[in-house]
Design goal:
The protein has about 110 residues and is an all-alpha fold. Helices cover about 75% and strands about 0% of the residues. The protein is elongated.
Length: about 110
């Protein structure tokens, strides 16, 4: 019985640690993503876009990356959130496809 409790506690703590990594990536990554999107979309749609206009998109992209990156890759992003290693570019391309097709508001 004590072994089952220990395993359950370990599993619970492992799940919590992964969630905190994902949340850390999400916050820093989303901030950088929104800034980049504002710069990339300057002058489109005839109006000035703000970081808030990209909240849903960047949130989706950060979530996708959090779910598909390895622990080592997560640690790399936590150390340097502005870094753009090759593996991140690959995951971002997949995230773009996933996020844009999942929300019709992001297609326009």
């Amino acid at each position: 019985m004590p072994i089952i409790r220990a395993v359950s506690l370990f599993t619970f703590l492992l799940v919590l640690s992964n969630q905190s990594f994902a949340q850390a990536i999400s916050k820093d990554y989303q901030k950088n993503c929104m800034r980049e999107q504002v710069v990339e979309h300057q002058g489109t749609k005839g109006k000035a876009l703000t970081e808030d206009d990209f909240t849903a998109y960047c949130s989706c992209q950060a979530e996708y990356i959090s779910q598909n990156a390895t622990k080592q890759q997560v640690n790399e992003l936590l150390k340097n959130p502005k870094a753009k290693p090759e593996w991140l570019k690959v995951i971002e391309l997949k995230a773009i496809k996933s996020c844009i097709t999942s929300d019709s508001k992001m297609r326009t």
